[in-house]
Amino acid sequence: MAELEIIGVPFSNYVRSVRMLCEEKGVSYTLDPARPHTPDVTAIHPAGQVPCMRHGDVRLFESQAIATYIDKAFPGPRFIPDDALGAARVVQWLSYTNVKVDRWIMRELVVPSVFFDKAKGPDTARIAAAVPEIEKCLKVLETAVGRTGHLAGTTLTFADMNVLPMLVTLALYPQGKELMGGHPGLAAYVEKLTARPSFTGTAPPPRG
Ligand SMILES: N[C@@H](CCC(=O)N[C@@H](CS)C(=O)NCC(=O)O)C(=O)O
């Protein structure tokens, strides 16, 4: 079988989720640690985002599409169920996570906390406005994982792998740490999943 290549910097949450899926399934792959908007990426993703994927003649972009392909095309345990309801529940949580959780944690808290005009300092009003929205997301997620210990269904799915890096990133920031402290059920879910070799084995190298 042709070699599977995951394309994208290892510190991208979405790259990590796809890599976690490969690790959980036992699918071997090579990582091309290309940055967004560089030639290996723009050759595949029309908007230059990571992750992208190459497998023989197959080229894919968008983490959900890549995960769906890997889960179905390769042997090993399944992390996106085949049955209609099981698959729909995974897609439901992927969509919620990517539209709400990613937006409020990554785009409205993390990005403005890290990238800002040094002369002006971070946009504290923008960051403060994200906090109540993140709280809403954490409440939703805590209720969901409280039912079975997983977001979709009763076992680990790609929905869990998708949200995990975002929650771990959140806890690196003081506001996020405090918010997570108010959700012990969600914190326990994160602690349990971050102990998995698929998570520890895909840790990005320290940024130099
Ligand atoms: N919906 C995309 C989101 C991917 C995404 O946001 N990737 C980020 C890195 S984590 C990126 O490439 N950012 C550069 C940009 O958006 O221009 C997916 O699920 O793959």
Lay out the secondary structure.
Elements lengths: L3 E4 L5 H13 L4 E3 L6 H4 L9 E4 L2 E4 L1 H11 L10 H31 L9 H25 L9 H13 L3 H8 L2 H11 L2 H4 L8
Parallel strand pairs: 1-2
Antiparallel strand pairs: 1-3, 3-4
Helix pairs in contact: 1-3, 1-6, 4-5, 4-6, 5-7, 5-8
User: What small molecules does the structure contain?
Assistant: glutathione
Question: What string gives the helices and strands in order?
Answer: EHEHEEHHHHHHH
Count of DSSP strands: 4
**What form results from the Cα inertia axes?**
globular
Mean pLDDT: 97
Question: Could you give a short account of the major beta sheet?
Answer: 4 strands, mixed
Oligomerization status of the protein chains: single chain
Order of strands, main sheet, comes to 2-1-3-4
Given the structure, what is the number of helices?
Answer: 9
- Uncertain spans, ≥5 residues at pLDDT below 50? none
Q: What portion of the residues fall into strands of 2 or more residues?
A: 5-15%
Overall radius of gyration:
17 Å
